[in-house]
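Field reference: sequence -> structure
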Amino acid sequence: MNISTNLTDNIKMMKELLPIGKSYDFVTRDLEFAGRKAYFICINGLCDMDVFQSLFANLQNPEFLSDLENPSTDTLIASKMGYSQIEVTASLDNVLYQILSGPSVLFVDRFPKAIIIDARSYPKRGMDEPDMEQMTRGARDGFVETLSSNTNLIRRRVRSADLTFEKVKIGTVSKTDVAIAYLGDCVNHSLLKELKQTLSGLKVTTLTMGAKSLEELLVPKRFWSVLPSMQLTQRPDVACSYITEGHIILLVDNSPMVLILPCTIFQFTQSPEDYLKNPVVGTYFRLIRFLCIPVNLLLMPVFLLLTTCYPAFTQKWNLLSTGSMGNTRIIFYVIAVELFLDLFRYSTSLNTSKYSGSLSIVGGLIIGDIAVTLNWATPEILFYGGITLLAGLTLSSPELADGLRIYRIFLVLATAFFGVWGFWIALSLVIISILLTPTFGGMSYFWPLAPFQGKALYRLLFRSPTYKAQPSTHYERGKVHNPK
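Structure field:
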């Protein structure tokens, strides 16, 4: 539907479609330019009023418009409105979308088009380093909830003419802006095309949780797939490194997290910290991080398996300092410690660093000591549980650590109730679940293992010097199956 050349009709339509007069944040103003009446609409707090004061002060001056005879929308903008971010539209739907997105709209009597003035000024917080991705060295900025600010952070680092941001709208109610960022000369164009088609076909009312909601819409998963199917980051330097390697970045307005695709399981084992240290030191800590994955997943289930099913082995290797105890007590201790450590980790993550010291003292000294005194745990089980917790905190991706935690609890429960067979069957199901983890576009979740690429696998395991670790010109990776 197009707007009318009659200003009164346009004002009437705006009052019918928008809660003007009811919602306090809608600001309207009746104006007059060179004998022509005009009507201005904006949302309070989302626009820079200084811009409008300067524009309207000139337009309301009769001498400023005296040289224009029968001005049109285009001539008025071209000769009298010097602000750069101005466009015109005849679509009523576009007018509504622009007003609700932040730009302001100006209707002028007898003009067949509305003037859209983009002088948005979104409230935003500082670009501080993300709490979940802190580093000892390196940049201290992070993505924020404003889309334009996040694109600027990427542009600042990747000053390439091929860097492209394509914007799409998702959600019939929220109409959330989503930007697709990529380098045109090295992106996988078939994957990019499939992504655009998928985004345009999403039937959703709103992205409730921003980037995380978009991830679940792009890669639907079954309940048995608990590992992350798409990497999220709040660090601009991490996002830019993946862009230069040929990946695609999705930026969602109102969300400080960006999505990186395609995704492999090895992406969750890397950290920018590796490249801020000597190559040998960085390789050492990267291999330690790889070792922490099986430790976090298997230490407690294997300990439970050995102590309950192989008592002779337990005594030989002194796995229990208190000597032999019943299987029921061991199972109870292991499950109690697992739940206690999860409660401790969750409570500390929800509180500020102001209370982290106090929580550590309460959890590590008071509760741990009393648990041993009351025979709710043993020192060795607390020790193995503490090693498991540290191994999980070592992983650079909290999503990967959370997925491994669910797998570990499943292994512990299966071993506790069904013994040796329960452990091996549960471990087989865990491996199958990992192998069946879905990814977007049917890309391999285990590249460069499948399909195998030795050079890429070597760079994942070992930190190469900067002059050898430059990304290639083109991003190539095979698919394991055709996308549906």
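Note: The beta strands are 26-33, 36-43, 86-89, 104-108, 114-117, 163-170, 176-183, 231-233, 248-252, 258-261.
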